[in-house]
């Protein structure tokens, strides 16, 4: 199951990075135009960017549900504030995923940078799809910031507070399918945090830096609604997209310890190989 969680997280991050293929649509200015303009139907490669966002939403739905199951089926520190925050993070993840699907299904009808100002407010551009896209885009950024704030709140305050109070781990239902992964991680000596639950309290500084960077970039993009012609708007937005992907990869890695899992797999293979090499062989008669 853990392999699936890792694969889903990485695949979603890659799908969310289809904006990196922007040079294939040179008509869109990557410095000043939003990445969503790549998905406008006027471009022959719009399907590529729409498909990327659609896959991102589907993969993140699956990732959120599966990660929640992994958390529930293992021992974890439980307090009411932690339970509420964790439930809200799951809700934010699902809203983010569903909004991304709607965002991909309702692309911008007209790219702003290449459409005449007189046509932007015309019937061909001012469509219901435009308003749905604007709403879902704003919703995606909002729930992402909320999720990051909730995770930071748990890591910096709620989990340390629970540990200081000596709150014991509460047993969940064991999941035999994860035993092998857990044993490998222990063999590697990695700092697993299954028993603590989501989120882990390691690499906290990295996550905080990613969250602060994303929030600052998101606020800059939001300011464009009130302040026109902000410089480097497209560049800042693309940075925010990259930071968002890196943040959810950090969440999974710091919680489940992908680096430790890889070390455990390597050590397990070496141990097996050494055992086979030391095993006595029967003499040949």
From TrEMBL:
Alphabetical keyword list: Membrane, Transmembrane, Transmembrane helix
Magnesium is among the record's keywords: no
Domain of life, per lineage: Bacteria
Transmembrane feature ranges: 44-72, 84-102, 138-159, 208-227, 239-258
InterPro entries in alphabetical order: DUF998
UniProt-listed Pfam families: DUF998
Record's keyword annotation contains Coiled coil: no
Name of the protein: DUF998 domain-containing protein
Species name: Corynebacterium choanae
